[in-house]
């Protein structure tokens, strides 16, 4: 027993030491004057070396004791502590009497072989001190060592009964004897095996705990590359936080009231109590900000929770007062205070910060990069022989025509190589230009284009197609820095230039795009590339497409996202428009939408959609007055020629109107055609589409029609294109996105929660249809009653109110207003001022309506 007591005394001292060490570490650090710093480091270094030396000493003493115990045990046992002063006490231990005494105390009197665990503690402490940070967790190490000492010593004592050497030490043997006495040999064996199994299970299945820890780390925003959490876990965790923060970020900044009682489920805190003391300690030390996540047992990562913010209680609200938050296209039902938490009747969060349009579909996930594929190698293949051959051909051909050159250089692009030549002084540029066909002949290659001169470079360019062409994958463009980190309103990744630079522009500043190209040259792929770029960057609340597809098959794939990204006419089943008559109606509806948006902008005193939306987001525009967040609208027409042939002016006029005016209100047009002839791309259309793309066309005339320059007839197809933008014509290789990729992306979006229906365009009724219907009360408009209620409720007799609120065209709204006047609900027209409303109450109105 004495043997054991002395060992425990030693352990107690070690425990005490750790306690004081921890106390010291946790006390707030005093500012150390700069001049004192070296002294401080010296102390740490000395202590660390000391600790490691103690560890080494213990290890060697114990190891030595294992082989010398027969000789030394007797001596140490005979003299006890006095062994240090006895003259003829000769021992074999490598560390002499001290080593023998230590080995004997820790192994024989202590824990047997398990005593080696004690050395680990000193090594851990030494390493921590040396590194100046916590490489090992001391408290945890200490706990493991104590547990290990007991379990291992008892087990060894049990399983090595009768051995000469004391494998389990005095402690192991004593406890083993007690156990055998209390629960018998079999019971002891089962107990020890169970403890061993328990340890193995505990070590093998710590995943829950780790996951929680990692989530916390990742969620804290420090998604460093070397973080042990996998990207997926980090994403998941970030999402959790994003979801919880999105409603509260602004609140946080502004210190607005947040009341969040715990739900019963939260009280369980199952997932979140898994963090153990050590992790907590580590988190606290590593990152002060994390305190807000770990100092609480509330579930930090559930969707509803909020980070701790200064709290001021809001006025208590009855459960019935909390309205259901419906998903709607227009944000009119969202008051300036958003109320969340209809299910948990007592819980509510009030957000008085900025309006956030994306909250309509708060769980919407953008498509992932993995949904796109890399088509072949992204590296441009440069064939030196080919380059050399072409260079010599060009020089020789020019020589044949007596044209000398000073210098020639080459830039290898994905599909073509640009040879730039600097002619000798005195050579006329037009001579080279005229030799285009001859050079093409001598190079025996299709698709030679001569740019004489290259604007701004003072050289002449000869583009020669590569023998081995590289496909430009959409994935490469989407993952590029420029695409990911731009602040364009409508970023579109079109393709790569000859110098392999990515061509990524803002559709909003183009502001419309005309595309032409003979069949099979890459137009459909081009349209998909544009649509996919926008889908990768925009939230459904920020963008709507009006898709016109007379061929019926090209854009039908996008019908899956109609409740997310498409707009349609009221009362229509299909959002994608394939019928010419409906195209006319849709274009006119878009014109009405444009006019309505202009009215809104005028009222808000904003010059464009950006300013307007900024104002709306800042809650400076009242939704009660018809204001709403305006998504961008992109009209895509896949085959324009077909429409013009069948509907002519009826199509051309609204298109021209939209092209002229719609830019400021966020409506942009992408129009594609196979036949770029002058009767299709008329002067009026061309004048309003400054940005134009030409894929390979069949004649120079077509090229001129679309680009005002030749060259598109020389292209080589498969996405090789010329874009005329900002006054310059650039040759690009269009990004390639295959149908299965588009399919994957639209499925991914389509499977997510969307709006209840597509975005509704205003109703358009053809004037001709209205012509027969005068302001006759016996033939009232079907929306007459609704309009009357609207006017009476608002007490404003304005046609534009009917237009906006009921999404009607000007003509129809005007006609309803005339009928309201005849019914005595509003007064006479007063020019630009609203009419007087003659009915004050709804009850009065109902009487009038009943009498009609
Ligand atoms: N950017 C590109 N990179 C590589 N190959 C392309 C590219 N664009 C198109 N192609 C190839 O050309 C083929 C035809 O393209 P696409 O279907 O886009 O032509 P199109 O002009 O729309 O034809 P149509 O007018 O008949 O629909 C594609 O199937 C593809 O193999």
From TrEMBL:
- Signal sequence annotation: none
Which biological processes are named by the entry's GO terms?
cell division; chromosome segregation
Per UniProt, which keywords does this protein have? ATP-binding, Cell cycle, Cell division, Cell membrane, Chromosome partition, DNA-binding, Membrane, Nucleotide-binding, Transmembrane, Transmembrane helix
PROSITE patterns attached here?
FTSK
Q: List the subcellular locations.
A: Cell membrane
Gene Ontology CC terms, in alphabetical order? plasma membrane
Which InterPro entries would you find in this protein's record?
FtsK/SpoIIIE/SftA, FtsK_4TM, FtsK_alpha, FtsK_dom, Ftsk_gamma, P-loop_NTPase, WH-like_DNA-bd_sf, WH_DNA-bd_sf
UniProt GO MF annotations: ATP binding; DNA binding
Q: Which domain of life is it from?
A: Bacteria
Q: Carries keyword Glycoprotein?
A: no
Q: What are the FtsK domain coordinates in residue numbering? A: 500-704
Q: Which residues bind ATP?
A: 517-524
Ranges annotated as spanning the membrane: 45-66, 106-130, 142-162, 182-202
Give the family this protein belongs to, as stated in its UniProt record. Answer: Belongs to the FtsK/SpoIIIE/SftA family.
Q: How does it sit in the membrane?
A: Multi-pass membrane protein
- Indicate yes or no for the key word Disulfide bond: no
| Name assigned to this protein | DNA translocase FtsK
């Amino acid at each position: 027993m004495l043997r054991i007591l002395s060992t425990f005394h030693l352990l107690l001292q070690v425990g005490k030491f750790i306690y004081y060490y921890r106390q010291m570490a946790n006390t707030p650090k005093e500012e150390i004057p700069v001049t004192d710093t070296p002294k401080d480091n010296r102390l740490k270094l000395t202590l660390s070396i000391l600790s490691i030396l103690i560890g080494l000493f213990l290890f060697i003493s114990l190891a030595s004791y294992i082989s010398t115990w027969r000789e030394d045990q007797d001596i140490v046992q005979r003299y006890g502590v006095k062994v240090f002063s006895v003259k003829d006490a000769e021992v074999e231990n490598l560390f002499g009497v001290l080593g023998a005494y230590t080995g004997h105390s820790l192994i024989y009197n202590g824990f047997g072989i398990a005593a080696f665990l004690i050395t680990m503690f000193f090594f851990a402490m030494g390493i921590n001190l040396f590194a100046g940070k916590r490489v090992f967790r001391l408290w945890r190490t200490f706990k493991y060592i104590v547990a290990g000492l007991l379990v291992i010593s008892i087990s060894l004592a049990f399983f090595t009964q009768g051995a000469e050497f004391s494998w389990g030490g005095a402690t192991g043997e004593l406890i083993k004897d007690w156990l055998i006495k209390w629960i018998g040999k079999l019971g002891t064996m089962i107990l020890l095996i169970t403890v061993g199994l328990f340890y193995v299970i505990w070590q093998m299945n710590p995943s829950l705990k780790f996951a929680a820890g990692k989530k916390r780390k990742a969620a804290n925003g420090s998604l460093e590359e070397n973080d042990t959490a996998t990207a997926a876990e980090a994403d998941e965790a970030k999402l959790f936080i994003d979801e919880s923060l999105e409603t509260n970020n602004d609140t946080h900044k502004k210190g607005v009231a947040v009341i969040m009682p715990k739900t019963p489920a939260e009280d369980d805190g199952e997932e979140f109590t898994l963090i153990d003391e050590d992790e907590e300690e580590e988190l606290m030390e590593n990152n002060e900000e994390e305190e807000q996540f770990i100092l609480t047992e509330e579930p930090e990562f559930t969707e509803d929770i909020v980070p701790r913010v200064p709290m001021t209680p809001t006025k208590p609200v009855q459960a019935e007062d909390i309205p259901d938050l419906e998903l709607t296209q227009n944000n009119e039902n969202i008051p300036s205070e958003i109320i969340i938490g209809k299910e948990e009747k007592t819980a509510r969060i009030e957000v008085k910060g900025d309006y956030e349009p994306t909250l309509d579909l708060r769980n919407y996930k953008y498509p992932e990069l993995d949904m796109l594929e890399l088509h072949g190698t992204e590296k441009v293949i440069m064939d030196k022989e080919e380059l050399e051959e072409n260079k010599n051909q060009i020089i020789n051909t020019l020589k044949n025509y007596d044209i000398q050159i000073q210098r020639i250089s080459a830039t290898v692009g994905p599909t073509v190589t640009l040879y730039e030549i600097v002619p000798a002084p005195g050579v006329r540029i037009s001579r080279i230009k005229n030799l285009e066909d001859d050079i093409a002949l001598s190079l025996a290659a299709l698709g030679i284009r001569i740019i004489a001169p290259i604007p701004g470079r003072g050289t002449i360019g000869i583009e020669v197609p590569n023998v081995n062409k590289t496909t430009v994958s959409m994935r490469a463009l989407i993952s590029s820095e420029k695409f990911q980190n731009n602040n364009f309103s409508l970023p579109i990744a079109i393709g790569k230039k000859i110098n392999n630079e990515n061509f990524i522009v803002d559709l909003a500043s183009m502001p419309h795009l005309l595309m032409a190209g003979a069949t099979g040259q890459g137009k459909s792929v081009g349209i998909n590339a544009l649509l996919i770029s926008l889908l990768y960057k925009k939230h459904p609340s920020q963008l709507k497409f009006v898709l016109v597809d007379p061929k019926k098959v090209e854009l039908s794939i996008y019908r899956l996202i109609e409740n997310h990204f498409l707009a349609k006419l009221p009362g229509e089943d299909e959002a994608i428009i394939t019928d010419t008559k409906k195209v006319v109606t849709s274009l006119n509806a878009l014109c009405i939408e444009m006019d309505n948006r202009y009215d809104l902008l005028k009222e808000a005193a904003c010059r464009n959609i950006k300013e307007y939306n900024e104002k709306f987001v800042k809650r400076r525009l009242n939704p009660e007055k018809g204001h709403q967040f305006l998504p961008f609208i992109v009209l895509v027409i896949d085959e324009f020629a077909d429409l013009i042939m069948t509907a002519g002016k009826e199509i051309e006029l609204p298109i021209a109107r939209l092209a002229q005016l719609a830019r400021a209100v966020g409506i942009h047009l992408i129009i594609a055609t196979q036949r770029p002839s002058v009767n299709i791309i008329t002067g009026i259309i061309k004048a309003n589409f400054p940005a134009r793309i030409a894929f390979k066309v069949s004649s120079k005339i077509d090229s001129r029609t679309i680009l005002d320059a030749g060259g598109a007839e020389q292209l080589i197809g498969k996405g090789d294109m010329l874009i005329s933008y900002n006054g310059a014509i650039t040759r690009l290789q269009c990004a390639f996105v295959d149908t299965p990729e588009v399919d994957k992306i639209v499925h991914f979006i389509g499977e997510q929660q969307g709006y209840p229906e597509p975005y509704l365009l205003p109703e358009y009724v053809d004037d001709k249809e209205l012509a027969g219907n005068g302001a006759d009360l016996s033939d009232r408009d079907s929306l007459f009653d609704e309009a009357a209620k609207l006017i009476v409720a608002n007490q404003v007799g304005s046609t534009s109110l009917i237009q906006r609120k009921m999404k009607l065209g000007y003509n129809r709204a005007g006609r309803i207003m005339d009928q309201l006047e005849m019914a005595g609900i509003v007064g006479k027209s007063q020019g630009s001022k609203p009419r007087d409303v003659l009915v004050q109450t709804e009850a009065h109105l109902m009487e009038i309506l009943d009498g009609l």
